[in-house]
Amino acid sequence: MAEPHPTRPPDLGDIRDRDYWDRRYARSEFVWTAQPNRFVVAELAGLAPGRALDLACGEGRNAVWLAERGWRVTAVDFSEVGLAKAERLAADRGVEVEWALADLLEYEPSAGVFELVVLLYLQVPAAELRLVLGRAAEALAPGGTLLVVGHDLTNLTEGYGGPSSPEVLYTPEDVVAGLPGLTVEKAERVRRLVPVDGEEYVAIDALVRAVKPPSGRAP
């Protein structure tokens, strides 16, 4: 799963439908270009590379960008078509990524081994989000960083694009509540410009960056 395309807001049925994402990724061009998400670049460019886990990686643009910077990346998505596209992108860029076909509601990453976990635009109901957030936090090594970005609840009425179902939108506070064992470094609403047919619109996202404390230290 990945950042929904601005031309038509996906509803809850779309978001939970593997076939819907397979159809979207089946087009020859990239749905969101092959460039990394702007918040991934802004928040993570300064980190020393290690092991990284990209959850809901979609067409693989962020996983490939991390691999190009020396990260050993495992990338997970439930769309076989999206992962095939991601593999081609990695091959074109000359990098290796471990791709995993799995539903994040069933996927359980290894605990305590990743210096970085990214979770971008996974728009699912609150209980499912908490489940995935909990596993993402457990996957972090001590001192590891978790970056979560998703469509904010206020985007439904004040922003552009994104899902049309409020039950799959969330706030920075919602994300923080699902990360009780981590030290939150940043939790805020962020805005990005969305170009559409020669015009620009503003979308509102929730962004949370958190760190797992070193062993033996409480957050």
Please supply descriptive tags for the structure shown above.
219 residues, alpha/beta, Rossmann fold, 7-stranded mixed β-sheet, 8 helices
What does this structure look like?
The chain has 219 residues and is an alpha/beta fold. The protein has a single domain (12-211), classed as Vaccinia Virus protein VP39 (Rossmann fold, 3-Layer(aba) Sandwich), CATH 3.40.50.150. Helix content is 30%, strand content 28%. A seven-stranded mixed sheet has the order 3-2-1-4-5-7-6. Helix 2 (18-25) packs parallel to helix 5 (80-93). The radius of gyration is 16 Å and the shape is globular. The two termini are 30 Å apart. The model is unreliable at 1-8 (pLDDT under 50).
